[in-house]
Amino acid sequence: MSSALLGLVAALSWGVTDFLAQFPSRTVGPISTVLAVTFAGVLFLSAWLVMSGDIIRICWPLLWLPAASGIFLALATLSLFAALALGPISLVAPIAGTYPALSMIFAVAQGTRPSVMQWLAIAAVMAGAAIVSRSGTTYEDSGYIPTGKLKTILALAFCASLGSAVAQTSGQAAVPIFGEVTAIWLSRIFGLITIGAIHLMQRPRAELPARWLPLLGLMGGLDVAALGSIFAAGNLPDPAFAVVVSSAFSVVTVVLARAILKEPIAPMQLFGMALVFVGGAGLAGL
């Protein structure tokens, strides 16, 4: 299986997860939602470890790799769900989906030398994100989002992008050292500790009605499938391609929002989304 194909699996899984996330995030709050999704993911992974007989291998000097992945992924997910609780999917998802450009910049810092076409693709992704951001004023003018919340929504979406780039880059680096399953499990454990600590500091703490548990469990399973696909690419040539292709999750999310929720999309915003998608495809060499 190629890195690009694994990225596509991640894109479909995260696309559905983030579409579903809007509903519990607005009802029970993003912190409780992320906590439940992360906990469900840990349960799925732990069950897999027991059934497969895999042994957790700890490499102490490099434990910071899965730790960084889990912590930043938890914070990125929290930022994303908080943005979705405030604003429309068609505004938040394309901006959150710019993390491949940031991942490529991290790769440059580690010695990778992108081609001219790859630099152009990075520029397209960032330009598309800027266009989508500016088009957000149409939501504010129409009353689709509360007045004064646009900057908060955009900041949260960009934080989600940055956190995802750090999490996926460090997670892929952990796979050759710890093994795929161990790296994912450790990452989710650190993520659970992070979001659990944030939940304990919350005042007042939101209750989680039992009726949301099946949906949150499904989201946890999809999240693990996506993360597992990204981490698995760490053992394949060009693992960054999986990260890049996974950014297509924003297209999946926006299509679902448009088809089911009938969210409005301005022509200029659609152009910006297209730039993000084409730039991401260009980075993957598609």
Task: Tell me the fraction of residues in β-strands, as a range.
Answer: under 5%
Taking the alpha carbons of the first and last residues, their distance comes to 16 Å
The secondary-structure class comes to: mainly alpha
The low-confidence runs, each spanning 5 or more residues with pLDDT under 50, are none
Could you tell me the mean pLDDT?
A: 84
The helix content is over 70%
How many β strands by DSSP? 0
Structure description:
The protein has 286 residues and is mainly α. The protein has one domain. It has 13 helices and no strands. The protein has helices spanning 3-27, 30-52, 64-86, 89-96, 99-109, 116-135, 137-142, 150-178, 180-201, 213-232, 240-246, 249-261, 267-283. The longest helix is centred in the middle third of the chain and has 29 residues, at 150-178. The radius of gyration is 18 Å and the shape is globular. The chain starts with a helix and ends with a helix.
Summarize it.
This protein is mainly α and 286 residues long. It has helices spanning 3-27, 30-52, 64-86, 89-96, 99-109, 116-135, 137-142, 150-178, 180-201, 213-232, 240-246, 249-261, 267-283.
